[in-house]
Amino acid sequence: MNVAKAKELRKNSTDAERALWQRLRAHQLVGYKFRRQQPVG
Question: Three-state SS for 39?
C-alpha cells in the first residue's frame, strides 16, 4: 500500500470505521494503541 492509498482510505472511511475510531480515541480499550491505515515497507 502506498502513502496516497493510505491517505485516501483514511479520508473516505465508512460509518463503522468512524464509530470505531471515535471509541478508540476515547481510550475505551485501555492500554492499547492503534494506528489507522499505515503503509508498510
Answer: coil
